[in-house]
Design goal:
By secondary structure, this protein is α+β, with helices and mostly antiparallel strands. The protein has three domains: about 140 residues, no CATH class; about 80 residues; about 140 residues, 2-Layer Sandwich (Heat Shock Protein 90). It has eleven helices and nine strands. A hairpin with a 4-residue loop joins strand 8 and strand 9. It is elongated and about 125 Å long.
């Protein structure tokens, strides 16, 4: 069974919603960015003052002092964690401070007006869409207020430094477009990075689970082998006791029960030992055996799973097996009645093709097959990665790590996935020495 096989199997679910939430952005980062802004604002004030540019100096200095005070307060009483609400409040403070500075120093004529985009861009990279939208609308509103009610700058001679109305309008439009573009772009990129990070985490969890199962199977196989002798001894002694207690029917029944229990334990261990030994004590296996292992959890799910062709002895890697299981699971999920797994050896390459007779991949999504969180099926369990496009992403990631190249297409009819390895990357020597079996201490 694979980690994404059935949504009702709690052992195979990765709950991505119950994991601890990270801070949206560290307060230390916000404080540091604000110190940089304060330094730039003071440098601009000093240069303008030196050049004799006229502007309301006291209100501007008070606004800069307000930022300094906020930073000192955060330094003396830093919060333990930065919640989204705290981050929004801090960025809102920066937005109001910068917008007011812009209004007091020329409005649209201020060459540094583009810095008003900084708070909403930072928000887009760290907060959710609703919070980003609220800050974006507030930014547009404050830019508009600064454009209409901005205090004009004056040159050393006292003349007002004006911008032509058409240029002022163009500057306003450019800033509004900047709000939409930078916020949207930063939010989209951050979201994709977050999805990819979560998907890679799910991949690592799935592979780690597969490897744990492999190691567990090896221990079970070794335990079955080691416990065979003591169980045989128990059975022998129980049989002798039963023969000697023929005149004591009550004690003879106990001896018979002990012998039957020993037989049952031996049968269970033989079954577990075969499963562990066949799957786990070999580092290499014929390709067909690996494909049968990958397909076995889905053999009784409805559609007929047929394996065609054969191939060389390959590396028996848990990542490869798990990835192939995910590809086969996806085919079985959408097949009408039949899934075909075909193996071919071409010039210097091994190709495994998985095709089904279902509806195929949506044409609009075909170029994005293998991306994380591609689809969200309506019947998928919320909070798990079942049905969220992670199955194919995990398979693609694990197979590419093994040296394979994947191709997704429609045809046959239905969906077709081709996995192609260079033979020297996948072939293994079946005569190689086996690893040491786990030892069981008595």
């Amino acid at each position: 069974m694979t980690a994404s096989a059935q949504p009702d199997d709690a052992a195979f679910q990765i709950d991505l919603l119950d994991t601890p939430k990270a801070e949206p952005i560290r307060m230390r980062t916000l404080v540091l960015l604000r110190w940089f802004a304060i330094g730039g604002q003071m440098a601009a004030v000093i240069v303008a003052w030196t050049m004799g540019i006229g502007f309301p100096k006291l209100p501007v200095l008070l606004l800069v002092a307000a930022s300094v005070t906020m930073n000192l307060w955060l330094f003396l009483r830093p919060p333990k964690r930065t919640s989204p609400k705290r981050a929004v409040l801090q960025l809102s403070f920066d937005l109001v401070q910068i917008s007011t500075l812009m209004a007091l120093t020329g409005g649209m004529a201020n060459p540094f007006a583009l810095l008003v985009l900084a708070p909403v861009t930072i928000a887009a990279a760290s907060l959710n869409a609703r919070q980003v939208l609220a800050l974006g609308l507030a930014t547009v509103a404050l830019i508009s207020v600064a454009a209409v009610f901005g205090v004009p700058l004056r040159d050393p001679g006292g003349e007002i430094l004006r911008m032509e109305p058409i240029l002022a309008l163009a500057h306003w439009v450019a800033l509004v477009i900047g709000v939409v573009f930078f916020a949207g772009y930063a939010h989209r990129v951050t979201g994709e990075l977050s999805d990819t990070s979560g998907a890679l985490f799910a991949t690592q969890m799935a592979l780690a689970r597969e490897q744990r199962l492999q190691h567990l199977g090896g221990v079970v196989a070794a335990a079955a082998h080691e416990m065979g002798t003591p169980l045989a001894t128990i059975k022998l002694i129980a049989g002798e006791l039963a023969d000697e207690l023929r005149d004591r029917p009550d004690l003879q029944a106990d001896a018979d029960a002990l012998r039957d229990s020993a037989d049952r334990c031996a049968a269970i261990l033989r079954s577990m030992g075969r499963a562990g030994k066949d799957d786990l004590h070999m580092r290499a296996a014929p390709l067909r055996a690996v494909l049968e292992d990958a397909a076995s959890p889905h053999a009784d799910r409805g559609p007929v799973v047929e394996i065609l062709g054969d191939g060389p002895v390959i590396r028996r890697d848990p990542g490869i097996i798990h990835a192939l299981r995910n590809l086969i699971q996806n085919a079985v999920d959408f097949a009408a009645s039949r899934v075909v797994i075909e193996a071919q050896v071409t010039a210097g390459a091994l190709v495994v093709t998985v095709r089904d007779d279902g509806p195929g991949y949506p044409v609009a999504l075909l170029s994005r097959i293998g991306d994380p969180y591609l689809t969200r099926r309506a019947d998928a369990q919320r909070g798990s990665y079942e049905g969220m496009g992670l199955g194919l992403f995990i398979a693609k990631t694990l197979l590419e790590r093994s040296g394979a190249r994947l191709t997704f297409a429609n045809g046959g009819p239905g969906a077709v996935v081709s996995v192609r390895w260079p033979l020297d990357r996948i072939r293994a020597h079946d005569r190689a020495a086996l690893a040491h079996n786990p030892t069981i201490d008595a």
